[in-house]
Design brief:
326 residues; binds fe (ii) ion; two-stranded antiparallel ribbon; Hypothetical protein af1432
Length: 326
Amino acid sequence: MEDKHPKMIPIPVRDLINGSTCPVNLHVRIGNDKFVLIEKAGAKTFKDRLLSYENKTVEYLWVKREEYGRLIDNNITIAGVMVSQQSLSAAQKVQILSQAAACVFTELEHIGLGFDTYSHARQIVEVTVALAETNNNLNTLLNSLNDCSDELLRHSLAVSSVSVLIANALNWENKQTVEKLALGALLHDIGLKALPPELVNKPRALMSFEEIQLYEQHPYKGMQMLLSLGMVPDDVAAIVYEHHENAIGQGYPRKLRNIKMHPLAKVVALANDFCEMTVRSATNPQARSPREALITMETVMGQPHNKEAFRALQIVVNREYAKAAS
Ligand SMILES: [Fe+2]
Ligand SMILES: [Fe+2]
């Protein structure tokens, strides 16, 4: 992630949608406090041109803080329209969704969690649910997300999408419930933003006792961040608080058992463990296949999650192999 700046927000060039009309002025940073306008609002973005400015590789372009909301609105609108286009492949749709979501996660990083970021996250969730309804291909989804630039975004979008696939396999039909599920899943690790970054990136096996205790506060901190906004449904806050619990009472922070867990958190806790194995990260550079992840959950972890949710995840995973075999 690029340095923070009080007036400007960086956007990774790879997260720009190629060939679309960019609604904001784009700048290149040439010094600590110096920015040069290279593309005016209304021009079409061409990544190849933007990637090499004066023959230098430019990874980030910069947008004025007050214009940033316009860029997000634009990208979410494009993603919403693209998801219903039959001419696009599932992989292209996931890519467009993750580009729009990347802008929202950048907003979270540089502006913080406020009304705007929360409402943008809700819009991302609407697109995620719509995408899962039309394309339920788990492998395409996970493979496409593996290209995503930001690690937390990659993980959060994966947990959100997998949670929706599980809900669909459980035949949950209430759209509002599924959207709350997807939103809690998208924001489930937001409490990590309140921890020192070096701790977040440290493998758990290398953490001291005190570091583990601090790390395990992130579900509570995340819930508090959301509740302080004053408009977040309790269900969404409960998902965030309980995403590291499991049905056998061996999770954290409260060691809840299945019966005490929030029904939506049961799904997200399972999706979270599954995505930690199947989506690459600094601590998991070699992502496992979905089937390997299920086997690990059963044989190594003793399948600690809610049984119905796990059966639904098995349906989601096995459907992929059945498709591939036919
Ligand atoms: Fe977490
Ligand atoms: Fe997580």
